[in-house]
């Protein structure tokens, strides 16, 4: 593992109320990783993501961002961390009453002192990065599902985040659109120097663009392995991990 990880997860236990979903999670994420959270149905992939983005406080353990524990730091420090993160959702979560330009402009209006002209220029640039140049005045109801995903990504990168979170980004997309989104995520990662964390069950995405991952198991209620998914496919000591990554057996269900 990297001696200076960007994110460190240490003895993390997650769940809801008295229900433990996963425990004893220990893994690291390097800067500029495209990191996948993977595993079978009901293993807690999205639950882990929610704990990592500050929505649910861990039962035990910690998540350190360059040495800073989000849940143990000040409100000002939490806000600073949040402003360096971008989050996208399965549906895109665009505001239906706002144009694409207005959706992307919103974080800039809330968290920067940029002028209207500077915001408009930034919005146009971010939409162009995701292949939506010329769609500034379109409303979410006027674009396709794949374009929704890309518009959501444009809003997520409005503030040039160090860290991007995705929850099932390819959900509902056809294979070609899914491939294009994968390529776009890699391009954005390189253009902005961002680190990416993705919840996914899509093996083509995991194996083609993933540089690191953690495998969660619902039965054991803990992680079975972590590392480069392409390496784990052939060399993981855990048969269940190899089965999942090769689509052998029944361990490929969606969370």
CATH architecture: 3-Layer(aba) Sandwich
- Count up the domains: 1
**Strand content bin:** 15-25%
Query: Largest sheet, described in full?
Result: 6 strands, mixed
In N-to-C order, the SSE pattern is: EEEHEEHEHHHEHEHEEHH
Q: Note the gap between the termini.
A: 27 Å
**What is the CATH topology descriptor?**
Rossmann fold
State the strand order across the main sheet.
Answer: 6-7-8-3-9-10
- Mean pLDDT across the residues is 91
Which CATH top level class fits?
A: Alpha Beta
Features:
255 residues, alpha/beta, Rossmann fold, 6-stranded mixed beta sheet, 4-stranded antiparallel beta sheet, 9 helices, 37% helix
What is the structure about, briefly put?
With 255 residues, this protein is of the alpha/beta class.
How would you characterize the overall build of this protein?
- There is one protein chain.
- This protein is an alpha/beta fold.
- It has one domain (31-55, 83-246): 3-Layer(aba) Sandwich (Rossmann fold), CATH 3.40.50.
- It has nine helices and ten strands.
- It has helices spanning 45-52, 75-83, 100-111, 116-129, 145-156, 175-192, 203-209, 229-235, 239-246; strands at 7-16, 19-29, 34-39, 60-65, 68-69, 85-88, 163-167, 195-199, 212-217, 222-227.
- A six-stranded mixed beta sheet has the order 6-7-8-3-9-10, with helices on both faces. The chain has a four-stranded antiparallel beta sheet with strand order 2-1-4-5, with helices on one face.
- The protein is globular and about 55 Å long.
- 41% of the residues are buried.
